[in-house]
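MOLECULE: protein
FOLLOWS: sequence and fold
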Amino acid sequence: MTGYRQVLAVPGMASLLGVSLLARVAISADVMALTMYVVLGLQMNYAAAGGVAAALTAGTALGGPLLGRVIDARGLRTVLLATVAVQIVFWLSVPVMPYGVLLGAAFVAGLLMVPAASVTRQAIAAMTTEGQRRAAFALESVQGELSYMVGPAVVILFAAKMSPEVVAWGVGAAITLGGVGIAWLKPPLRAANEVESGAAVRPSRREWLGARMIAVLTMLFGTTMLLSGVDLAIVATLEEAGQVSWAALVMTVFGAASVAGGLVYGALPRSLPTWLLLGLLALVTVPAGFAHDWPWLCVAVVGVGLLTAPTLSTVADAVSRLAPAGVRGEAAGLQSSAASAGFALGSPVIGVAIDASMPGGGFAAAGLAGLAAALVGSLLSRSVSPRRTGTPSERDLEPFEHMVNKGS
């Protein structure tokens, strides 16, 4: 645990993680809040609610790189205050918007969502040393797991006791507070030596968006597609067994295992290649399809959970290393977009597999998707020679690239 103490002792790190957690919990609950509003407030069906959720998710996926690019060019506070203003207007207006207007407004709100996760990752890369970074990104991945465990559950709990309009306002207020808090803290997005050496100069995409970065983003897409499919397969399995009421317990076990896995991985003396972690995650996902009731599902998802946060943390670490300082915001935005795209595509694809076979087939399909992404990532990593010429920022990454090549 020494590594975690060192990370939390970095000036401003503990407060950043705390404020960022508030924003991320609220952002993870936004889809559920809009779903509850459409179903309970507008008295429409779940297909209509899914349309709003899809619009918000699509906007978030497209907006990540755009906001990151603006952060690189204009600075952090400009983007945070602008996105906070948009969120205030959107969430206050939710109860008075007809469905058609809500559909378009949700897309805009997603496009200009407060970039809490990507900013946190950028700040971690800037505020920590090489030796601290793995533990720091492990904490960030645990933060993400906690937000997805807490956010939607809190919305469901309050939706049963309050009006959906009040719940929507509460989610908007929490997003606003988190965004304002990060703006007030104004964490550094570039290390002092990067600023002094002029590393903030923006290189062309050709210099950094190469095979290795594409490999990492592909593996992230496969990871979130797998996780989205696992969530759906759990519900489908329990529904077939007549045990849907136990879904919350299975999801809690899944999330707790992921938190534990992330903390253990961050304390290890060395990191593992992303393709290896994703491949192992995929392999332990497939056998979960043999579980047919909630006790066995709880056992099955432990293995999946233990590898989830470590896989996500290695992706964040790799992106921070491969992206030069001048484009770190855009790279973090691409990371968020790849994750959102995987989550969005995972449910329908795995849903087709479940409909065509059985609930257990959903776990197999999710595992195969992850395995395919791991294979593609490994092949792309091998396709680039570790010895090459390039800009100083590119040459600084050669030791990392050699490590990845050796591990692959």
About this structure: The two ends are 28 Å apart (CA to CA). The chain has a mean pLDDT of 86.
